[in-house]
Structures are given as structure tokens and as C-alpha cells.
Design a protein that fits this description.
This protein is α/β, with parallel strands linked by helices. It has three domains: 129 residues, Rossmann fold, CATH 3.40.50; 150 residues, Reverse transcriptase/Diguanylate cyclase domain (Alpha-Beta Plaits, 2-Layer Sandwich), CATH 3.30.70; 248 residues, EAL domain (TIM Barrel). It is built from 21 helices and 21 strands. The strands form four sheets. It has an eight-stranded mixed beta barrel with strand order 13-14-16-17-18-19-20-21. The chain starts with a strand and ends with a helix. 38% of the residues are buried.
Length: 568
């Protein structure tokens, strides 16, 4: 049995004696007690990795200790020891970071053990999530959060030691065609293979990150000259283009690579990334398979020289973007309870184009705000249509980007859209990713509070893949957590994913939040999620994203399926 160390901080000897006796009576024995009447070095004690939980007697220093623990991201859960269960005091201290509480005179052994067991289990889950938050689960490469931290550290070392750092921005050309032709499973195989090929071309001091579906970034530290960067990039292009086997067929792809150098091209993180990405876009416009290093002479003409840019401007002007909706199902009842609005580009020549092929370009061109407002307008109209179809209890969720929510006009425009459409704001849900919130937690919270006053609710998308501080969960008006599909993919055969999913579900329950699992594709996944009390799910098991007009047929099919299951 794993042993856990519990620290109790109290100036009352009776507290130490009572808690010690209770822990000794635990069966099986799993607690060790560490005691302190005061804290001469509070931070050292709170950050001690050997401490699994802390019981703090409520007193004059309690708020200070909680703030200190929160500021320094102390991992050990903090449990209050109170004279009485005063709800106002409990709420105040929980907002400061207290995990739970015990009341003197009500220290029954079962209660003490249960609270400690749960708190320690939650701590372990947080640590697992924190570890995962810096890594892409498919490739093992850094994700966006880990990439930013690594590049900023590399830039700092460059400044201190006077060497150059290069950033390569890599995009796989026409990758969407691979997914369309071979399926997402083979697409994942290709991404993992490309990731391994890139890693094989790196030095021990270099690093690789996966920034999105088909985008990678490579940080090259201590490079001598731009020619060295070009040489490495050319080797990467050659390695990527080597054929591989997918579904017993030989397949080959190419990539486009852009590069920017620190410090001569840019000295800020965002500038360096944008310059490398612009160079990549220019390489891509040259039919792909090319490497370009950024220079001041390099111009990616978004005014019309790029055919993609021209097409996208036309698409915005002619409102060629449309929404498909992926159903969200209540696992207890099997009923439709929500829809996630997913953007598609209905290109007159190419048909429906997935967002992976155009979102990056739209962001580069500053079109996402305009497109985002069109999406919200369509989603509100969809909600009105749902009411007309007697589907009154179905939420419509819309993904919101950072550029949208930071727009000073955002709240006023959303309010106007809701008013004009006649939509019920209580049935409109905005989905924000963890990485979006982390860009400006305080500013986004203020914007969320304004939108919440309109009646709009919020869900946290891709949960577990980007948050560095889970304390944000208690500070933001979030009503739902969406478990990222990467934690569902191998259920129930991956014990690590099982642990993460069950802890996220339990965390959501404790926080009073709805939990939705994304990416469910098999009956086994559904049964696991249902057995572990996940409330809602979306994924191909029930349906891909479909046009709104196909929804009544889907609802009817679900009703017939439930009826058949009840009769069988």
C-alpha cells in the first residue's frame, strides 16, 4: 500500500493528537503524519514534494498561506480545520485555493480518511494532467504550451550567451487530402512518422513541437549562420518526402518550411513565430516542398497575389462559409442535448473544405473576426430553428478564438446578433480552449463575465492539454469541461487514459461542472464513459458533423434506436 505524508499546521496540540490518532486508525495503514505548530519557512513546507496533503488550522495566517500556495503553484492540496462550518468563510477560503475542510468535533475517522484519499487522488491527477499539458499525446513532441516555454527559454539563453537561435515553421502540404482519402487513423500514422523523421534530423540541443494537425515547429539553438539553417531545413524536406506505406499503399507528401532568426529577425516570441509562419506561407504559395527564410524583402501579398488569399476574401464577401453540427448526446438518456457548430468552406470548385486548410491563412489575413461573427450569426439562427422543430432543450456551442474575444466590440456585436435573431442566449454556449484563456486570463475573465450577463454559458474545450494552473477553473464562469479526444482515443485499453478521464470527471463533479467527452468512436468507449458517470459525449459513434437540415432525421433515428434497445 502506497504511503502518503500528511502535514498538519496548528498551534493546538489537541489538533495534532486527534488527527494523528485518526490517521493511525486507517485500515489499511496509508498515512504518515508530519506536524508543525508554526511555519518559519512556509513556502519551503508548502512546496515540499514529500508532502501529499496539508491540514491547516484556520487562523490569522490562513489567507496568507493560501495565497502563497496559489502564487507558487503548490501541488499539495490544502484542507482547512475549522471550529464550525461557516459557509461564508468556507466559500471565501475555497476561492483562495482551499481544497476541502474539516470541522473540530466532527472528525470521524471515515470522513477524515475519505477527504484525504480524495484530495491526494486529485493531486495525483493534477500532476498527470500538468505533465501531459506540455506534450502532444499523438507524437510525444511539445505542444503549443510547451513550445512557447521552450522557445522563450532558448531566446533567453541566446541573449545571455550571444548565440543565434532559429525557428523553423513546418506545414505538411495537402495533408487534408490524406485524411479524406485514407482516414484519420492513417493520417495519425503519417503524422507520427513525420515527427520521428524530423527528430532524427535534430541535434540533442534542438527541439520539436506539434502546433496543430499538420503543423510543426523546430527550435535550433546555437546556429552559426543562416546557411546552416537552410542545410538542416533541406534535410528535413528530403526526409519528409520519402515514401511511406499507408493501408498497404505507398504514399509520399511534401512540406513547406519557413524560418526566422533570433535576434536579427525578431526579439519577441510572437514576432518570431509570425515571421517564421509568414515565410512558411510564402513557401507554400510556391507549390510547396520549399524552404524560405524570412527577410525584410519577403512579402506575402495578402491583397490578392496569393490565389488562396483572393479566394478567401471572395468567400467572406459571398458568405461561402457554412456550419455543420456535431450532436452531443446525454449518456443517461441517449437524447440529443447539444450541437457543436463546426466551420466548413463551401468552395464553388472544390466543394466542402475542412478548416485545417484555410484557418491559418484566415488568421494571417485578419479575417477570423469577420468569419467568427458570421459563425455566431448562423449558430443563433440554428438555435431559433431548433425551437421551431420543438427541440427546446438543445444547446448550440460555438468555438471562439482569441482574436474574437479580445475585440472590444465583441460583447456589443454578440448582443446585437442575439437580439436580431431572436435566439435564446441561455441555449448558446461559447467554447474556449485552454491555450486561448492562458493568453490573457484576467482580460478574458472580464469579457466572459460580460457575456455571462447576457445569459451565454461557457465550456472549456480540449481540457487537459494546455492548462498550467488548474486554479483558473474556479475563477472563470465555466459550466462544462470537454475532455479532449486524445484522452478518449484508446479507452478502455489504456490505463493512463482511464485514470485521466476518471479524474477529470470527478473533478468536474466536485466543481459542479458538466463533463463532455469528445472523440468517442466505439461502443467500448461509450460504456466506459457511462460507467464512470461522464454526463455527455460527442463523436463519430453517434454522428459526424452534419448539415442542420439532416438533424430531424438523426433525432428520429436515435429515438428508434433507443426504442429498439428498450424492447430487446
Amino acid at each position: 500500500m502506497e504511503q502518503h505524508t500528511v502535514l498538519i499546521i496548528s498551534d493546538k496540540k489537541t489538533d495534532h493528537l486527534i488527527v494523528s490518532a485518526s490517521l493511525e486508525r486507517a485500515r489499511p495503514q496509508r498515512f504518515n503524519l508530519a506536524s508543525s505548530e508554526s511555519m518559519e519557512r512556509p513556502l519551503e513546507a508548502l512546496l515540499d514534494p514529500t508532502i501529499d496533503a496539508v491540514i491547516i488550522a484556520h487562523g490569522p495566517e490562513t489567507e496568507y498561506l493560501l495565497r502563497l500556495a496559489s502564487k507558487n503553484e503548490a501541488a499539495a492540496p490544502l484542507i482547512l480545520l475549522l471550529d464550525e462550518a461557516d459557509q461564508a468563510t468556507i466559500t471565501q477560503l475555497q476561492e483562495l485555493g482551499a481544497q476541502d475542510y474539516l470541522v473540530r468535533g466532527q472528525l470521524q475517522d471515515a470522513l477524515v480518511h475519505r477527504i484525504l484519499d480524495y484530495s491526494i487522488k486529485l493531486k495525483q491527477a493534477k500532476e498527470q494532467i500538468r505533465q501531459l499539458s506540455n506534450r502532444d499525446p499523438l507524437t510525444g513532441a511539445l505542444n503549443r504550451v510547451g513550445f512557447r516555454a521552450h522557445l522563450e527559454r532558448a531566446m533567453g539563453r541566446s541573449e545571455r550567451y550571444g548565440f543565434k537561435t532559429a525557428l523553423l515553421y513546418i506545414n505538411i502540404d495537402q495533408f487534408a487530402n490524406i485524411n479524406d482519402h485514407y482516414g484519420e487513423a492513417d493520417g495519425d500514422v503519417m503524422i507520427k512518422s513525420i515527427s520521428r523523421r524530423l527528430i532524427n534530423k535534430l541535434r540533442s540541443t534542438d527541439s520539436i513541437a506539434r502546433l496543430g494537425g499538420d503543423e510543426f515547429a523546430v527550435v535550433l539553438e546555437d546556429v552559426s549562420s543562416p546557411s546552416d539553417v537552410e542545410l538542416i531545413a533541406e534535410k528535413m524536406l528530403k526526409s519528409i518526402s520519402a515514401p511511406m506505406i499507408l493501408s498497404e499503399q505507398q504514399v509520399a507528401v511534401e512540406a513547406s518550411i519557413g524560418a526566422a532568426m533570433y535576434p536579427e529577425d525578431g526579439v519577441e516570441f510572437s514576432d518570431l513565430v509570425e515571421l517564421a509562419r509568414s515565410a512558411m506561407q510564402q513557401a507554400k504559395s510556391m507549390e510547396g516542398g520549399q524552404f524560405i527564410r524570412y527577410s525584410e524583402r519577403l512579402t506575402f501579398d495578402i491583397a490578392g497575389n496569393s490565389s488562396l488569399a483572393a479566394e478567401l476574401r471572395t468567400a467572406v464577401r459571398k458568405n461561402q462559409f457554412e456550419l455543420h453540427y456535431q450532436p452531443r448526446i446525454d449518456l443517461a438518456t441517449g437524447q440529443l442535448v447539444g450541437l457543436e457548430a463546426l466551420l466548413r468552406w463551401n468552395n464553388p470548385e472544390r466543394g466542402l473544405v475542412a478548416p485545417g486548410e484555410f484557418i491559418s491563412a484566415c488568421e494571417d489575413m485578419g479575417l477570423m473576426k469577420t468569419i467568427g461573427y458570421q459563425v455566431i450569426q448562423h449558430a443563433c439562427s440554428a438555435q431559433v430553428w431548433l425551437k421551431e422543430q420543438k427541440l427546446h432543450n438543445v444547446d448550440v456551442a460555438v468555438n471562439i478564438s482569441f482574436s474574437q474575444i479580445q475585440d472590444d466590440r465583441f460583447v456589443a456585436i454578440v448582443k446585437d446578433i442575439i437580439t436580431r435573431s431572436g435566439a435564446n442566449p441561455a441555449r448558446i454556449e461559447f467554447e474556449l480552449t485552454e491555450s486561448t484563456i492562458l493568453k490573457s486570463p484576467s482580460g478574458i475573465k472580464a469579457r466572459m463575465d460580460e457575456l455571462r450577463e447576457l445569459g451565454i454559458s461557457f465550456s472549456l474545450d480540449d481540457f487537459g492539454t494546455g492548462f498550467s494552473q488548474l486554479s483558473h477553473l474556479t475563477e472563470l464562469p465555466i459550466s462544462a469541461l470537454k475532455i479532449d479526444a486524445c484522452f478518449v482515443r484508446d479507452l478502455p485499453h489504456n490505463k493512463h487514459q482511464e485514470a485521466i478521464c476518471t479524474m477529470i470527471i470527478e473533478m468536474g463533479r466536485r466543481l459542479g461542472m458538466l463533463v463532455v467527452a469528445e472523440g468517442a468512436e466505439t461502443h467500448e468507449q461509450i460504456e466506459f464513459l457511462r460507467d464512470n458517470h461522464c454526463q455527455q459525449v460527442q463523436g463519430f459513434y453517434y454522428s459526424p458533423a452534419i448539415p442542420l437540415q439532416n438533424l430531424p432525421r438523426f433525432v428520429q433515428e436515435q429515438r428508434e434506436k433507443r426504442r429498439s434497445q428498450l424492447l430487446s
